[in-house]
Amino acid sequence: MICLDTTFIIDFLNEEKEALKKAEEIKDKIVITTTINEFETMLGCYLKDLPQEKVNKTVSFFNCIKILNFDTNSALKSAEIVYSLKKSNEIVDKNDCLTAGIALSNGCQTMITRNVKHFEKIKELKVETY
């Protein structure tokens, strides 16, 4: 199972060459994302005041992919990640910790992102980029 981070989703929706190539590589895998990534992506659409056509395209994308929710198990895993990183004096965006917590608590150990610097600090996670 592979989790798509917000950076990948945005690049894919913008039809960036590297993201499209990576999507082709993983087309036969189980691919998921999280409610956190859905929130970040949709917020970006609204903050950038994108045309309704692009907003609709984004909504359609999320309608076609399995989205994992933030639940009790993911809350516990996310808190464990933040605590572990703080103990090591590492700073990672809280949304990235929430995303990783959701993925890991659901048995997904691979994240596709352009934001390698943050996610690689989470030891249980395999990080792929494009």
Structural features:
130 residues; alpha/beta; Rossmann fold; 7 helices; 5 strands; 57% helix; 12% strand
What's the order of the H and E elements?
EHHEHHEHHEHE
- What is the terminal-to-terminal distance? 17 Å
Shape: globular
Largest sheet: 5 strands, parallel
Give the fraction of residues assigned to helices.
Answer: 55-70%
Widest sheet, order of strands: 3-2-1-4-5
Low-confidence stretches: none
The CATH architecture can be named as 3-Layer(aba) Sandwich
Structural description of this entry:
The protein is of the alpha/beta class and 130 residues long. The protein has one domain: Rossmann fold, CATH 3.40.50.1010. The protein is 57% helix and 12% strand. The chain has seven helices and five strands. The protein has helices spanning 6-13, 17-25, 35-47, 52-63, 72-87, 94-105, 116-119; strands spanning 2-4, 31-34, 66-68, 110-112, 126-128. A five-stranded parallel sheet has the order 3-2-1-4-5. It is globular, with a radius of gyration of 14 Å. The model has no long low-confidence stretch (mean pLDDT 96).
